[in-house]
Amino acid sequence: MKIPFAASEPNQPHCDDCAVRPLGICAALDRGELRELDHLGRHVHFTSHETVFAQEELTTSFYNLLEGVMRLYKLLPDGRRQIVGFALPGDFLGIAISARNNFSADAVGAVAVCRFSRTAFMQFIADKPHLLRRINELVIRELGQAQDHMVLLGRRSAEEKVASFLIGWRVRLARLGDATNTLPLPMGRQDIADFLGLTIETVSRTFTKLERDGVIEIVPGGVRLVDLERVEVLAAA
After folding, report:
1. Cα distance between residue 158 and residue 99, in whole Å
2. Distance CA 170, CA 180 (A)
3. How many Å apart are CA 44 and CA 65, to the nearest integer?
4. Domains of the chain by range and CATH?
5. Over the stretch 72-131, which tens digit does the pLDDT of each residue have?
6. Which residues have C-beta within 8 Å of that of residue 134, sequence separation ≥ 6?
7. What is the C-alpha separation between 167 and 103, in angstroms, rounded?
8. Confidence (pTM)
9. Are 5 and 48 in contact (CB under 8 A)?
């Protein structure tokens, strides 16, 4: 299953036909529950750079990402931006401990989501322990990713950070069925820099050095991992 990075023409597919269903929370539901969920969701498209939801706004909706990539970030008190992640198809967004969004999300290119009213969705899951378990599994996975990111920000060199990002991105794409050493990077260098806690100049120099050393090849729209073993060694350092 290969998931597109850009949303296709607007349509209203049914849950039974959803390509990302095996990847997300919906995998826990039977056919009857899927039909019930189908009536709760609304398919919405966002254009490139359009905000899907904003930090500190009241959480009124949950979002299941169907197509495209979303940029997740927090704005610091001094106005700086820290990207905390990139959402891929199958990711479920909006669940938070408080009643307000913990971070902002906007579209990297065109994006399609299935949007659920928070109130209606919470009522839907109330008597479905199997769905709650599935949500818990995804939350635990996200927590692990957040902990890895904290280590990445504080304890790695620039080369190790970039290599770790590329390997992590490759693993996530493989989960979507796109197992290849040529990695599309729909996000820009500034996005990668903000995610890794580096400057854009440092990220650009690091990509150039890795290419010069024969570790990667910069290709249109992404990179190719020429020496996968070397990238993995850097990422594990």
Report:
1. 36
2. 8
3. 10
4. 15-150 (2.60.120.10), 156-236 (1.10.10.10)
5. 999 888 888 899 999 999 999 988 777 889 899 999 999 999 999 999 998 998 888 888
6. 25, 27, 28
7. 24
8. 0.87
9. no
Instruction: List the structure tokens of 166.
Output: 């590329």
| Cα–Cα distance measured from residue 199 to residue 182, given in angstroms and rounded to the nearest whole number | 24
48 Cβ contact partners less than 8 Å away, ≥ 6 residues apart: 107, 108, 109, 110
Strands (E), 28-172: 41-46, 51-53, 61-75, 81-87, 92-93, 104-117
Q: 45 phi and psi, to 5 degrees? A: -110, 140
Using DSSP's 3-state secondary structure scheme, residue 64 falls into: strand
Q: Give all strands of the β-sheet with 216-219 in edge-to-edge order.
A: 182-184, 222-225, 216-219
The residue with tokens 């359009």 is 50
- What amino acid is encoded at 141 in this protein? R
Of 102, 117, 104, which Cα lies nearest the Cα of 44? 117
